[in-house]
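Entry — protein

Goal — fold tokens:
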Amino acid sequence: MKRVGLTRVASAWARSFSRQLRAASRAAARLPAAKKAAVTPRPARSARAAPTGRGEWLPGVAAGVTGMRRYRLYRPPGLKAGERLPLVVMLHGCDQDSAGFAASTRMNTLARRERFLVLYPEQDRLANAQRCWNWYDTRNGRAQAEAALLLAAIDQVALLQPVDPQRIALVGLSAGASMAALLATRQPQRFRAVVMHSGIAPGAAESTATALAAMRGRHLPTPPERGPGDAPSPWPALLVIQGGKDSMVSPRNGPAVAQLWAAHLGAATSATRTVQRGQRHAMTVTDFQRQGLTRVTLVDVPRLAHAWSGGAASQPYSDAQGPDASRMAWAFALRQFRQTAQPEPT
């Protein structure tokens, strides 16, 4: 993009940020002084219906030094006083928004039944015309700045909502999966589990050109060599889901992510099995374990293209015939949450 175009985008972003900041300031000024310290946004009654799940569908905005991002939060009904719930952070792919991703994954329905909160940060078109998260742009710091905004959104929700900070998981599709990996490797102590669906390994790209090469399977990171006394990295446990017919993210990326992550965690391949549930696509599941605990799981779905596995048939980037990725993601995260109170053997 030419400098003139970048200037116009920056100017439009600044105007949008100023308008929203002024509106927030005016709203705060009208509140009684005693209520200004902690206010939970309340949407209009017509906006409270959450996609594919009864409960509250709350809007929010997280701001940082590099800008701001909108988000939606799903709260299951019937919260009890003093109750603290797990939080699943859902990072959408390109050409998606929070409502579309919620409808495709049907994560809210699962959250209502299993009782957890779901946060859907939303990329702004001024930051990326295709609504892709800029996970790859580490050379100029844009990826890191965007990761900081997402952490600000998580912090804000954790402050205003009944979130258990020891039970937070990241789940992403495509660009969202790659951004989830960046968040987890930058702030590993914040998260107990990461689910990457059709994503790129951390460190595989630092610019647009290297991102495209990685997506085509030509620029993949090499797992680090570990010496006998090397301690494992404190990265959270990882579930990788990759389609064998993916024409946008090369199927080579799935094993590359799993092997890289397992090497950092000091985990070794322990088992491979083929699973098929009913008429859904079959999948090959490979576990990587360390001292009896599964730290990385790779799910390869040979007949899956670039789509959320088991998603709603009416949504784009969604394959209803695939194994249910939402259920797999929650089951994987839940296992990690249950191990929180049981320290890993050393």
